[in-house]
Amino acid sequence: MTATGPASDPGPAAARAYLGESLALLAASAETQHAWITRYGVPVDELALSYDDAYRRVPSLTAARALDPDSVQDLRAIDALFARLSDEGGAAAWEPEALGAHPDWARARLLAAAVLVREGLDTPA
User: Fold this and answer.
1) CB-based burial label for 65 (10 Å; 0-12, 13-18, 19+)
2) CA angle, residues 12, 15, 20, in degrees to nearest 5
3) Confidence (pLDDT) at 89
4) Roughly how many angstroms between the first and final C-alpha of the chain, as a whole number?
5) 3 state SS of 64
6) What are the start-end ranges of the H helices in the chain?
7) Is the per-residue pLDDT at 101 higher than 70?
8) Which tens digits make up the pLDDT trace of 39-55?
9) Cα 89 to Cα 68: distance, rounded to the nearest angstrom
10) Which terminus of the chain has fewer CB atoms gathered within 10 Å of its CB, N or C?
11) How much is the pTM?
């Protein structure tokens, strides 16, 4: 991602910014996601790993009341989707073609977009 990636204790503003970057990538179209993994030469699971890095900040953001409770629920649902893909999706769920074809990837896009809007992370700072 960028220099705003995870740190030991980035504080709520930096953690929200990093979460927003991760969610923006998850909310992007399958074509944009495919272009991103191609550009950086990384596998599809890097999308989920990037989210996981940002998701680790959710407990501290929740404690700081820096996230809407509905957003926290959506973020947990995204985490559960990726866990299910890992446990039940098989290798095909992590292929580039799955970004546009697998329903869990579509659901993750919708949830990520909802959180971006709800939290005001979809607009430039």
Assistant:
1) exposed
2) 120
3) 83
4) 17
5) coil
6) 11-27, 30-40, 45-55, 58-63, 69-88, 98-101, 103-119
7) yes
8) 999 999 999 999 999 99
9) 30
10) C
11) 0.88
One-letter amino acid at 70 equals D
Q: Would you tell me how many other CB atoms lie within 10 Å of the CB of residue 94?
A: 19
Identity of residue 6:
P
Residue 8 above 60 pLDDT? no
The two structure tokens encoding residue 36: 């991103």
Give dist(CA 119, CA 116) in Å, integer: 5
For residue 44, give the nearest of 125, 4, 98 by alpha carbon: 98
- In one letter, which amino acid is 71? S
Rounded to an integer, what distance in angstroms lies between the CA atom of residue 13 and that of residue 120? 12
What pLDDT digit, counting tens, does each position of 75-85 carry? 999 999 999 99
